[in-house]
């Protein structure tokens, strides 16, 4: 079936047509009215313009020439511009006079690169202006900011308070600041460092300020702590490190017995951070040596300016005494990398520490079960081990001959503090070395008697057994 067709002449279609016709009529009438209004406005404007021209000719010249003052017109324009800038400056993004970028945000360097691409060269005046701007930037960067100046004043005040009127709070705070300053890099390598008041004080300071804190920590703070805590230095003065000491010359209770818990904690805090900083410096020293960088032992030398006082603070704590003995032995035996002055200053601290450790041990007649001096044995073994390690790479050239002699003499002098313990140590190591040489020589003779096998492809060469003698420590 075909769909039913609707009749076009329906009542709905007639109404729609009538509405469309009425809309067209309304539009035409609106357009006509608009055209009439525009015509009337134009006629009014022309009539007003004509009357204004007649008034001007009547007041002005007879010829009707426009001979008005040019300067007055320019001043009116300037007034309009200033009024516009005064009202609309807040809404405009205009560059300031001190800003180095233009309105588009391009700096001088970016514009210069753009000029170079186009082959445009700057004039002499523009080059001079650029040099002046660069010089101002460098001067501004060199000058410390207000915040850094305030922090420098705070640190200076803390150090002066510790030096003039020391107390536990100020000294502990200075120790924490020193630790935060020189262990910051090591903490950043492992994990992010927590924000502390000490780290906030140190942020933004230069290397010179860090060195001031470090110098105060290693040069002045040990003496201040000894005076503040009341350590009996007079007992140490009775012992001569060159002549040596005997067991029982010192007692821990006699020297440190009068210290309260706060004083003991302060001693432990200082010596713990001292050994930690010394280890960090030695590790950095070894890293630079491996990377073939120039090494300066000036900072390492500063650790031992008050080496005797540090030894007196370290003596009651065996754990830190062992650590300090190991670090000092390493410094003395680095004859090819360390300056002779640093060697001697480190040995002075090591000699006093070893002498004091002998003096605090109980005498055999007082205690039959008295143990041998463990600290002295550790010192001798550590020096021997460090010397053999250094001999592999240090050599014995003429340029380091004086440092080599210093290391050897220091080792002999340490062994001379206790000949009995040194004899036992020397006999044990010499006997072990003889056994090692005999076994190696025996294996070499057996290899020589056998026929040499043909070299097989893909296999490594056999190491000469004689070389194992030199690798033994």
UniProtKB/TrEMBL annotation:
It is found in: Nucleus. Its main location: nucleus. It comes from Strombidium inclinatum. Belongs to the NOC2 family. Residues 39-82, 105-126 have a biased composition (Acidic residues). The keyword Nucleus applies. This is Nucleolar complex protein 2-like protein. GO terms for cellular component: Noc1p-Noc2p complex; Noc2p-Noc3p complex; nucleolus; nucleoplasm. GO terms for biological process: ribosomal large subunit biogenesis. Signal peptide: none annotated. Residues 22-38, 127-152, 454-464 have a biased composition (Basic and acidic residues). Keywords: Nucleus. Residues 1-152, 445-473 are annotated as: Disordered. Residues 1-21 have a biased composition (Basic residues).
